[in-house]
């Protein structure tokens, strides 16, 4: 049975549709991804793919670029409606951790390597894009935290940057050992530090956490 006829879309819309549909499949299959997988995920015939992409590799590169672009993450951040600062930090950390894991999963699966040294103009453009994306993401995090900035000890943009760094450190496979990975635990550390809360206040910090006494260290 042949795939259903694709809904008419502009080339840019078709590219975006294929990229979004391919992203979860690439996360699942990595380098074993085929054009048939892409077509099935996007609900199009394989020939439709090659009307807007030169090759499967071009689709994969577009997915990588999509994961690096913070547009979707910023939209998800804008859709958050936390009730308080603790919930805001927890939700932002969880969202950022998920996006970081998605990209690193693809990077590891595809055995991605750092790009070859480019000419100065290309390097400058790469840096400009990186800075612009970083600033957009940071602004989106700031917007979530802004209603509670009067409760913060540091400027809200500094807090947002710290939160983003913690999300990266607690989710990147080469940095995190999962000892501190739950967004609620990360939020508790960021907001309350490493000290035990006063007696009777533990539930306010982390109502569901159960932390057994540490075992004696062995070296």
TrEMBL record:
Recorded GO molecular functions are: DNA-binding transcription factor activity; transcription cis-regulatory region binding
Q: Which PANTHER family match?
A: HTH-TYPE TRANSCRIPTIONAL REGULATOR BETI, HTH-TYPE TRANSCRIPTIONAL REGULATOR RUTR
Where the record puts its DNA-binding region(s)?
A: 34-53
Q: Which residue ranges run through the membrane? A: none
Which named protein is this?
Answer: DNA-binding transcriptional regulator, AcrR family
Domain HTH tetR-type: start-end pairs: 12-71
Organism lineage string: Bacteria, Bacillati, Actinomycetota, Actinomycetes, Propionibacteriales
UniProtKB keywords: DNA-binding, Transcription, Transcription regulation
The record ties this protein, via Pfam families, to:
TetR_N
Record SUPFAM superfamilies:
Homeodomain-like
């Amino acid at each position: 049975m042949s795939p259903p006829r694709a809904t008419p879309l502009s080339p840019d819309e078709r590219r975006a549709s294929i990229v979004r549909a391919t992203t979860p499949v690439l996360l699942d299959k990595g380098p074993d991804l085929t054009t048939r997988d892409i077509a099935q995920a996007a609900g199009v015939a394989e020939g439709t793919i090659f009307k807007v992409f030169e090759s499967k590799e071009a689709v994969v590169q577009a997915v990588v670029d999509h994961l690096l672009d913070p547009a979707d993450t910023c939209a998800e951040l804008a859709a958050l409606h936390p009730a308080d600062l603790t919930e805001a930090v927890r939700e932002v950390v969880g969202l950022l951790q998920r996006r970081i894991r998605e990209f690193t999963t693809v990077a590891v699966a595809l055995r991605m390597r750092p790009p070859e040294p480019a000419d100065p103009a290309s390097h400058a453009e790469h840096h400009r894009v990186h800075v612009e994306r970083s600033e957009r993401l940071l602004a989106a995090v700031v917007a979530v935290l802004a209603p509670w900035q009067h409760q913060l000890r540091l400027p809200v943009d500094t807090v947002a940057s710290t939160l983003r760094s913690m999300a990266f450190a607690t989710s990147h496979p080469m940095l995190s050992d999962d000892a501190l990975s739950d967004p609620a635990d990360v939020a508790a550390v960021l907001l309350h530090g490493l000290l035990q809360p006063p007696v009777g206040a533990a539930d306010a910090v982390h109502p569901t956490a159960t932390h057994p006494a540490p075992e004696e260290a062995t070296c």
